[in-house]
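can u pls check wat happens w/ cytidine-5'-triphosphate
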Amino acid sequence: MLTNKRILLIIGGGIAAYKTLEVIRRLREQGVSVTSVMTKAAEQFVTPMSVAALAGETVHQALFDLTSEAEMGHIQLSRSADLILVAPATADLMAKMAHGQANDLASTLLLATDTPVMIAPAMNVRMWEHPATQRNIAQLRGDGIRILGPNSGDMACGEFGPGRMVEPAEILEAISTHFGAGVLSGRHAVVTSGPTHEPIDPVRYIANRSSGAQGNAIAAALRDAGASVTFVTGPASVPPPEGVAVVRVETALDMEAAVKNALPADIGVFAAAVADWRVDGTQDQKIKKDGEKIPSISFVENPDILAEVAKSKVQRPALVVGFAAETQNVIENAAKKRMRKGCDWIVANDVSPGTGIMGGVENSVILVTENGTEEWPRLPKQEVAIRLVERIAQHFSETA
Ligand code: CTP
């Protein structure tokens, strides 16, 4: 619970403002008092009436409002909270913050404050990717502002990519963690992610199509729930999340060593697409064509990192979660895999080419536990991660 915490919520003008209403509701449920400020543009997307009704307080709108100023001056307003949350943070609001402009109530409060600030950007993908926005983000990060997301996915404007505001649950997790009240505070999680590269010679390797997106999202969700996370990642195509201890590896053998080194842990989530085999007798020099013989490659089996950790007698995490990438008989194969590998849960997914899951931004999973199977709807990978972490937190609260 976040009882008696005070949050100053600044709502920017974006379609994601409707999600902010849910954030207010959830914060109030946790005992937080929410004072809201809306920009002029925000009023085009949600009404001050709905914000006030949910927050249980009048909404502050204009900089030069004598009544509000008499009740609480804007300087006092900017300092009386424990945390300032900007959601959605538009490109315009972020630009004002990065440059220290103060030409409306929201930007003036943000310039006048000495309170920690968290922002949840939301905008069109091109606006997000524009060098100006990226410069502003880097500036804000450097100024110590915590940036949540944005997530990738379908956008209200019909485009696709990064720019969606993070979900209310992610905002709540981040706020809880900020106040040291994360559901997994004090727990250590090891997460493997990405593909592995198995060298043939110094210039060639064998790889797979994993992007690392699902592992990234899980590490970020565990971090947001307050866990300290060791993130062991193969050469993924997405950069690792902030705020986790990153260990970069290349091969399955490197990954095995890094995971062992990271133990003990309370939670192990094995999302990496580890190569099952490595090349027997990797060449030190580049293999050359000799015009006659086509080289043949033979393989040896890699250690099964998940099975080793799950069956370990000494340093087995209390909860071991594996993944199952299947192309047929998903549930049956995943259930067998859970038994064979000795893990507690398996997150099974169908990675057949038609599903677009491997390397894509969405996932459709079935959670296989000792109690049976649960089919989840097709969701963005971030939401799959949040659900999984909620289940992990529930597991620990039940077994506490
Ligand atoms: N895994 C692992 N080490 C390996 C192979 C797999 O830790 N050498 C883990 C993966 O991270 C995943 C789980 O085991 O959590 C299942 O991976 P998957 O590729 O689905 O299964 P395999 O063991 O490779 O079985 P198969 O290829 O027969 O489906």
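The mean pLDDT is 92.
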